Amino acid sequence: MTGILAFIVVFGVLVTVHELGHLIVAKRAGIMCPEFAIGMGPKIFSYKFNDTVYTIRLLPVGGYVRMASSDMEINPLNPGMRVQLKLNDLGEITHVLLDDKHNFNDIEEIEVVEADIRKTMTIRAVRTYDDVETSYKIAHEAYFVQDSELERIAPASARFESKSVMARFWTLFAGPLMNFVLAFVLFTVLFYINGKPSDEPVVGVVAEDTPAEEAGLEEGDRLLEINGTEVRNWDHMSSIIQQEGESELDITVENDGEVREVEMIPMVEATELPDGEVVERLIIGIGHDFEEGLVAPLWWGVQQTYEMGTLIFELVVQLFLSIFEGTFSFDMLNGPVGIYVVTEEVASQGLLVLMNFTAVLSVNLGIMNLLPIPALDGGRILFVLYEGIFRKPLNKRVELNIQLAGVLFVLVIMVLVTWNDIKTFFL
User: Fold this and answer.
1) Could you state, in order of their start, the residue ranges of all structural domains in the chain?
2) Considering the chain, what percentage of its residues have pLDDT values greater than 70?
3) Measured between alpha carbons, how far is residue 152 from residues 35, 142, 219 in Å?
4) What's the CA gap between 92 and 294, in Å, rounded?
5) Identified catalytic residue from 19, 133, 149, 258
6) Is position 314 annotated as part of the catalytic site?
7) Could you tell me the EC number(s) of this protein (predicted)?
8) pTM of the entire structure?
């Protein structure tokens, strides 16, 4: 149960932060957003505020911000329909009444001939009381009314495609950007709580029943040499231990100006990964010393976010190269099932470990969404940049076909990765 809750919370936080980035910047750019959704599938909760319906959906995987655009506008008006209109003093439509569940007075009944809510923003209709055909203009602020609920009709000026290239770029980029911000915040909080592991080869803690404890290593000892090799930093110390194997180590240490020699044989530590693979490495049983500070954790948070982003980007590049080199395997990817299994394992190690894992996932989500795949933010950003460079949008049919191909590609990959995860972890 803990694993399920951890998975829902982690995914919920990542998706909410990502989509909030899109929503906040879109609204500041004047783009109307009819829906902000966390999760997929049937609604289990909804709340409307400022022309946006905030929904939580049943399946805790993904989310979206539905932004007003010509391609996304759903027109409920068909030729021959009889509806009622509420007009303002200029004769413009302010409300299209789709049923009788309303309290409007001074309304006009019509039979729709043609309705265009994408370009001309007009309704051509026959008034039922005198059979005269009339063309009505839809006001800047107008609504469809059904079941006593109002749904704003997006004016042309509030649609995504009507905004400048820069406004659209930042609206799309804001989602991944917020994931990087979330990672920075989590890493920084962890540094304030734990401090930062020092890169210096200084003993911060000695584990019980380990070679280091038996040899008499103490907190504060600095490792100077191992088998005659000068130790430069913590990673260098670890690499020397791995290279020397399970042979005796002659270690020179220094503490408060006193230099002494200790001897020990490293032990093998076996770690089982969530997929069942067992990884072995040699250890002597010491932990990092930690640095602390008042302002430094902020800089450490930036560094950690950048380093993790660089690492993940390099892994993604290697992943794509493996496709052309013929070494690609779906074992190199994790889908929702794989992430759930790992999240369950991480959650069992405590809240701080889960926070660090969430930060890493947030960086990963930010980078993956910036990949130039049409179904993702990165693909949509490419379309916007194309328009900015060539001063005209990509042909609509071409863009639609590319988007469709991107969606199908992502869906196929998700199905294959999920099936691979199920085989790996449960079969």
Assistant:
1) 82-153, 197-291
2) 97
3) 11, 6, 66
4) 60
5) 19
6) no
7) 3.4.24.-
8) 0.84
